[in-house]
Amino acid sequence: MAVNRKYRTKDQELKEEVCFITAVVWNKQAETCNQYLHKGSAVFVEGRLQSRTWEDNTGAKRSVIEVRAERVQFMGAPGQAKTAGQTNEVHLTEALPGEPSSETAWLAESEDETHEG
After folding, report:
1. I want to staple 25 with a disulfide (CB 3.0 to 4.6 A). Which of 30, 66, 68, 96 is the partner?
2. Which helix (H) or strand (E) holds 1?
3. Is 83 inside a domain boundary?
4. Which residues partner with 32 through β-bridges?
5. How far lies 111's CA from each of 77, 92, 96, in Å?
6. 2 is a domain residue
């Protein structure tokens, strides 16, 4: 995701900065996002922050903070007017008890990478 922020400097010059944020989405919600979202799509993502640390191919330590999406709401195409109640919302689905989801496997893998010595 790209989040734009406009602000004025001390000299009243209008500046814009872009912050790129990775959102991690799973299961049916991920499939729906893949099908309907594209570059420039307006989207509202609600979730929690997740930190991961790993070692890359060169041996350097890397880390990232991602949004673990719990709810994704499509806001429509850029510039498209929305009518009242016209949003598509998808929710994170739970795995069946005793069956690890891809999210559970990812979290376990992420924790192993974080705690490696």
Report:
1. 30
2. none
3. no
4. none
5. 37, 21, 22
6. no
Q: What is the 3-state secondary structure (H, E, C) of 4-60?
A: EEEEECCCCCEEEEEEECCEECCHHHHHHHHHHCCCCCEEEEEEEEEEEEEECCCCC
Q: Over its length of 117 residues, how does the chain's per-residue pLDDT go in tens digits?
A: 998 999 999 999 999 999 999 999 999 999 999 998 988 899 999 999 999 999 999 999 999 999 999 999 999 755 443 443 444 444 443 333 333 444 445 555 544 544 444
* Residue at 85 is within a domain: no
Q: How far apart are CA 12 and CA 25, in angstroms?
A: 39
The DSSP secondary-structure symbol of 115 reads: T
101 CB-near residues (< 8 Å, 6+ apart): 26, 27, 94, 95
Of the candidates 87, 91, 55, which has an alpha carbon nearest to the alpha carbon of residue 74? 87
Query: The domain that contains 68 carries what CATH number?
Result: 2.40.50.140
Number of domains in the chain: 1
